[in-house]
Amino acid sequence: MTKKERYQYVFDWFQEAMPIVETELEYGSVFQLVVAVVLSAQCTDKRVNQITPDLFARYPDAKQMAEASQDEILDYVKSCSYPNSKAGYLMKLSKMLVNDFDGEVPNDFVALQKLPGVGRKTANVIMSVAFKQPTMAVDTHVFRVSERIGLTYRARNPFQAEKQLVKFIPEHLLQNAHHWLILHGRYVCLARKPKCYKCGLTEWCKFYAKKPVSK
Description:
With 215 residues, the protein is mainly alpha-helical. The chain contains 12 helices and no strands. It folds into 2 domains: 3-21 and 136-210, Endonuclease Iii, domain 2; 30-129, Orthogonal Bundle (Endonuclease III, domain 1), CATH 1.10.340.30. The protein starts with a helix and ends in a 5-residue tail after the last helix.
């Protein structure tokens, strides 16, 4: 099987199995999406969605969050992972948005990465989800699933995986591909004990061919 054929089979299956797919983070604006994605680092979307309703009710936009102290923001995010660091990021990125971008999240990949707490992965998520751009965010799920299925080969880090994926995934599918791979990793292709018995991709999966996992 060629690389091109593998990608074709895999993403044909995803299109049929999950024709409608989107982020599980809950938000009401681009700014709120940025906040939710920053909070989601090494934290589950479920936990973030428990935190953000009260946080967004108090600080619905960059201007109001920029007026808050780190400790005030911390009161709302203390149940997520690394709350002190994230509260600091949210305070600083809000101030930067107000001071440098008129309170609006920039539709620019480079500019996004200037915001505290926003790295390449987060910027890719914002560009894809908020601005509908063909980008590929690679988190731990995407990195793991792509390697197991055989979409990537010996990628040593997320950036290398991203470059391989972008090379072979058709541009019009990139926006959904990010979500397909994340959700597959989150609910089926688990890190410790993948649910191969529930997976529709075993026919093309290199991991399953070597070490199938049953119930």
